[in-house]
Amino acid sequence: MKLAFSLSILVLMAAPASAACYADYKAKQDNPLQLHYGVIEVPDAQCTPAGAAAQLASRLRDGWQVLQVMSVFGPEGLDQRKASAGEYFLRY
Question: Where is the secretion signal located (predicted)?
Answer without folding.
Answer: 1-19
